[in-house]
Amino acid sequence: MSIRSTIIKPLDQSFKSYLESDGVFIPEGSEDVVAESTLSDEDESESSDVSEPEGQRFSFPELDAEIRAAIDKYQAVFPKLNFSSPKDAAWVLPMSSPLKCTSPADVYLLLKSSDFVTHDLDIERVFEGCTDGDQPSYNLELVLRKWYPVDRSREVRCFVRNDTLLGITQRDMNFYDYMIDPVTQTKIKSTVCCLWEENIRPNWTLTQPDYIFDLLLTRDLSRAHLLDFNPYAPRTDPLLFSYQELHAIYIRATREHHQSSDGSSTVLDLLEFRVVDSPMHPAAARSTPAHQHNMVPIEALSLSEGKSITEFSGIWRDEVKRAMQDEDKDHSTHEISK
What we know:
Largest sheet: 5 strands, mixed
Structural class: alpha+beta
Strand order of the largest sheet: 7-6-4-5-8
Mean pLDDT: 82
Order of helices and strands: EHHHEHHEEEHEEHHEHHH
Number of helices: 11
Low-confidence stretches: 34-51
Helix content: 25-40%
Strand content: 5-15%
Distance between the termini: 70 Å
């Protein structure tokens, strides 16, 4: 039911320290192919300034080997930690194959560039809202999932409150005309209900009856792959719902179930499915790319390696000033030539 994955656990403190360290850089030995250098001696001297920060050299040969074994097994992988994936850092790898990792260096670069995965590094954030008695032991894990192209239109998020399946929403906030077809919506609702009742509900062993799960539907919409579980809490985006609306749906579903004298009300009858139903829908009208707050020019990424915020700020100002001077010089030369 879930995507084929390899779990590497536990990750030691040195790997956590690497993810928490300043700058974006990859550990030594994690690249599969060392490109032949075309730099001059002068260029090589300058490039040494963007290496790992002094005193922060990292190398994970055993982890590299486990990652390479998973890549050999699946051809390519998509990494995540215990709960969070680095989707916000997809821009650091080729957009033609987003989040596709074919070397340990790719895996490290995604994780190191992501804001999302920092959630899993802080145990207080991981168990936010839980009582002390509810907190299990926690060790950092690296999950390597088999990578393959995903049709985002077939991803859905599902909400369960007090062991009641309340709602389904598409995850990708774009308009897809096939999703507004009533027959298609009924088929998706039926597939989700069937999977939840047969596979998820009877195997849910946690005492907390509230949770959210994400699915990737197959092309014919008759089956689905389980992607993730998320807490039923404000930090999980309800997308086309709000938590107030989900609460209202839960109250209504509970009332209708109790009022049904013959128990004829089914999960399918009470389930609400929301989609972006028009190109003019507010969610679809947003033209900004997902996670744009985390996107920076590749030049900025290169200049930032191994630098603190203050150091990077100074370097960036110098680069902008130099570029403006070069532009003025080119303009003056052009005017003289005229």
